[in-house]
Amino acid sequence: MNIQVDWYAVFMNSAILLGSIIVGLVLYSILLRVISHVSRVRPTVLVSSFERNSRRPLKYAIPLLILNLILPFLDASSGVNYFFDHTFHILFIATLFWMIISLVPIAEDVVLSRYNILDSGNLGARKIHTQIQMIRKVLTAVLSVLAVGYILMRFDQFRRLGTGILASAGFASLIVGLAAQKIFANFLAGIQIAFTQPIRLDDVVVVEKEWGRISEMTLTYVVVKIWDERNLILPISYFIEKPFQNWTRTTANLLGTVMIYIDFSVPVDDVRTELNRIVKSSDKWDKRVCSLQVTNMSERAMELRALVSAADSSSSWDLCCEVREKIIGFIQKQYPSAFSQIRLNFQDQGGHE
Which of 46-55, 84-93, 156-165, 272-281 has the lowest mean pLDDT? Predict the structure, then answer.
């Protein structure tokens, strides 16, 4: 059986397809120049984010759109129309989903531009940043699954495979459910944290006996940046299932504690006056709390507790260190023998000291 190939039709179809791709790339180049011009003349978050996030999907979406529009007009005698139609349609759908997914971070940038997370009173901003970022990740995951599912359903083989799988789904779903239990637990925990917000981006936490800040949150794990630049990575379900300290849950303001152990001979009022002088001269004090109390005593010394307030955890730490250093210097200078001491009495055999 001889197969007759209409080479003229093949040549014409190929030329039309190539010309369509060139036209699409030219239109993409023109559109990109227009967007860049608008971004320079009237810079906005929306335009700059659109240019940054949609540049790559647009490069493929425009030529594929033109190809899909001209396919019905190709010469069908070449016998390749079905192949082109099927292939270009799948590619266009994939690119379209890619384009839709790229719109999610654009919307995120526009919303978050109104909330500066670097401000000192950034509790509301951190709340919005956390919610928007988690919603963006959920939407991206859902759209990606939908895109893959739609493309696979375009193939008859996968449709038949899906029917066969559904026929025996009872046992398979049990196995998959057990295997993916942790994955879904973390996924649901991520959604729960996005709305209940026991933690937020930039929160100061003490977890696993480590002090740090929440630097990154995904649907499956959280990165805590430890004070010494290490990164502690925890499953997101950890913050639902286990106790931890959140120092900035409702406000960034904190009370710092400085414990001082000195001899009974030191006048407490003098130390209190010096504490007030130290914190009033420090730019780290937020002018809320400054107090000194005798909280305990032993047979050798008395325990003083200084409470000082600061606007955030970093300032609180630095202020406590400053108070501790200057109180020690004050006592060394004014009462050099007043630090906690051990006194021993020696007696000779005759009973004399």
Answer: 156-165
User: DSSP for 153-167?
Assistant: HTSHHHHHHHHHHHH
Print the domain residue range for 320. 254-334
On whether both 302 and 330 belong to a single domain, the answer is yes
The reply to whether 230 and 276 lie within a common domain is: no
- pLDDT at position 323, please? 93
Q: Are residues 91 and 124 in the same domain?
A: yes
* SS3 state of residue 235: strand
Of the ranges 54-58, 87-91, 94-98, 267-271, the best mean pLDDT one: 267-271
- Looking at residue 171, its pLDDT comes to 46
68 and 92 in contact (C-beta within 8 Å)? Answer: yes
Q: Are residues 35 and 163 located together in one domain of the fold?
A: yes
**Which whole-number Å values give the CA distances from 189 to 89, 123, 199, 218, 225, in the listed order?**
37, 22, 12, 10, 21
Residues 158/163/169/173 CA torsion (nearest 10 deg): 30
Looking at the fold, whether 34 and 85 belong to one and the same domain comes out as yes
Report if residue 344 sits inside a domain. no
Predicted TM-score of the model (pTM)? 0.48
CA dist 209 and 247 (Å) reads: 14
Q: How far is CA 237 from CA 49, 135, 217, 280, in A?
A: 32, 17, 12, 43
pLDDT at 297 (0 to 100): 87
Sequence-ordered strand ranges (E) for the chain: 204-207, 210-217, 221-226, 231-235, 245-246, 254-262, 285-297, 302-310
Q: Is the pLDDT of residue 278 over 50?
A: yes
Q: What is the SS3 assignment for 149?
A: helix
State which of 197, 228, 246 marks the end of a domain.
Answer: 246
Lowest mean pLDDT among 123-127, 145-149, 321-325, 346-350: 346-350
CATH number for the domain spanning 210: value is 2.30.30.60
In a domain, 353, yes or no: no
- pLDDT of res. 81: 57
158 φ, ψ (degrees, to nearest 5): -70, -30
155 and 17 within one domain? yes
**Where is average pLDDT lowest: 18-22, 253-257, 337-341?**
337-341
